[in-house]
Fold:
Amino acid sequence: MENLRIPGPTPCPHEVLQAMTKQMINHRGAEFSAMLNGVTADLKTLFQTKNDLLCLTGSGTGGMEAAIVNMLSPGDKVLSVSCGVFGDRFADIARTFGADVTSLKFEQGKDCDPDAVKKALQKDAGIKAVLLTHNETSTGVTNNLAALAKVVKEADKLLIVDAISSMGSIDCQVDKWNLDVAISGSQKGWMAPPGLTMISVSETAWKAHTASKMPKFYWDFSRAKKYLEKGQTPWTPAITVVYAMNVSLKMMLKEGMQNIFARHAKLGDMTRKGVKAMGLKLVVADEKYASNTVTAVWPPANVNPDNLRKTMRDKYEVVLTGGQGTLEGKIFRFGHLGMCDEAAIKDALDALRKSLPEHGYSPK
Amino acid sequence: MENLRIPGPTPCPHEVLQAMTKQMINHRGAEFSAMLNGVTADLKTLFQTKNDLLCLTGSGTGGMEAAIVNMLSPGDKVLSVSCGVFGDRFADIARTFGADVTSLKFEQGKDCDPDAVKKALQKDAGIKAVLLTHNETSTGVTNNLAALAKVVKEADKLLIVDAISSMGSIDCQVDKWNLDVAISGSQKGWMAPPGLTMISVSETAWKAHTASKMPKFYWDFSRAKKYLEKGQTPWTPAITVVYAMNVSLKMMLKEGMQNIFARHAKLGDMTRKGVKAMGLKLVVADEKYASNTVTAVWPPANVNPDNLRKTMRDKYEVVLTGGQGTLEGKIFRFGHLGMCDEAAIKDALDALRKSLPEHGYSPK
Structure:
């Protein structure tokens, strides 16, 4: 069977796949309500929050759009802090809906520097909200969100965090770090298929929502909250993904949050050591900020990473993914989040080691 | 097993449920591309169109929002033609995003009258687009879309159609009737779970899209089209729902479009005759416009429809749904679309007949 090692969609456990063979039920009935309430409660535990948590039907990018249109008004000054494609996307969405965005960008492979954020906030007192990426999937960088959040909250700004590829896999403490809005997606560390985006909303965020004037209907947090109070969603939800998460979240709670974080740390470390042992370089500039859910790698000189991936897939059934944006055709990326163990990483590294010589490079 | 007789989500065939146990695959790989291209081609056949067809991850309401923000600019004059909750919702979305909406509303149970639409269009030459509902799920009315579309296109207006609960079940000829945008949802007649909205886009619609200034990112048709050209979606799609439709669409094509329409006509007729035989009244005013996917019924005087449904569910495992909007607590509704046969309708009618006496009414 294929070893799917991309940063989402991630493989689902057998029990989760089987859960989706359950027949459709009434999404306005008692059985679904109990399920949605259970999933919401489990998600709150794993988001480490007492804030409201909303499940909306859509991709992670839909969750990012939802956060923007529910928090901001056209003309609002927003600081976008970005170190890659997903940080840039967040800024693009805000601009599309009329926010006045100041971009603070960090070089490829670098993390977002809290001091630079502090300075940017001091420079313009009019900034209302800050957009941050916890784990930048395009470069394999995990920002020091605790430190970044501290700077943002000391300046008393609204803090909106893309935690799509970190939450549930890498420690992300919504309440302790005062994240006003934190977004994730079902196909990342949650061991479920794509189709749901999960978003926590703090009291401060609700206040911002009330004042927000960007147009919203499908993504409207108020509607979602009102329906959640009766165990429903305003619009027909992706029921099978709720079935899946109803099982996968229990598996996660059984493994234990700290154990999950430790497992991801171990798998990230194993991946990085493995590629470095072959003489390859990581995209992340300082390993202190290396992501435990995704590793981005520079191929050897003169090796086309997309051709290399093709060999790995065709010959060894290991599926990696390529670069995005300016890194398209230049790097390759390993996903090691959700259902992943040492055997899967070993298998993927073996495939890489065996494939490299076919592209003219002998690993160390 | 429960007889789920609501107008979506509808029961899925065994083969479709089993299809979702397939492991996740790379949504940017060849296997998924082939699947998405196949699903898109089959949907075009069943939409009876050569127009572009886009699959977006979201509920049907998301598809309605997508249609609005891709076709219109703030301030655009729009005629909303509504005979129920879903027609009103379409107008609400357009207003939310800044359209200048004129509402042409028809009474509960009535269909939308083409002559009235013609007059409304003559009254204001500035109207740019018309919003229509093919099948009004809240009252069980199927509008004469061919006649309505003719009036709209003779006036040379952009025609945006909510065909969520009709397409694939009731004849809806996108190309022949010149529907510029037609929207459906995977959980309706398509025998698949909720999570995808499918939208056809005509050449005229693409021109309107180019001129449209409402803010769009997640729902942006241009991005969806650009990615579809390589067999992908811009954002991670609801993969399992694509797996499901990849099977259910083949089943639909095997049954044959005309046979599907005939089956729905027969089941609609059977449902209506059944409830009338018990002395109950339909919500639809003129049976000529009765829907073949959903039947809305007035309960006998002094019978609470929600309590009646509870008896049907608890005692006979038949699940109907209630009224929406001003009809909440006043009517009940049968869904008979997608995977449905005469035995399922007979079972539901039997349950109704047996439940009515417990609520003080003896069926004729």
User: Anything to note?
Assistant: The longest strand of chain A covers residues 52-57. Residues 3-7+256-359 of chain A form a domain with the Aspartate Aminotransferase, domain 1 fold (CATH 3.90.1150.10). Chain A touches chain B through 55 residues (CB under 8 Å). Residues 257-277 of chain A form the longest helix (21 residues).
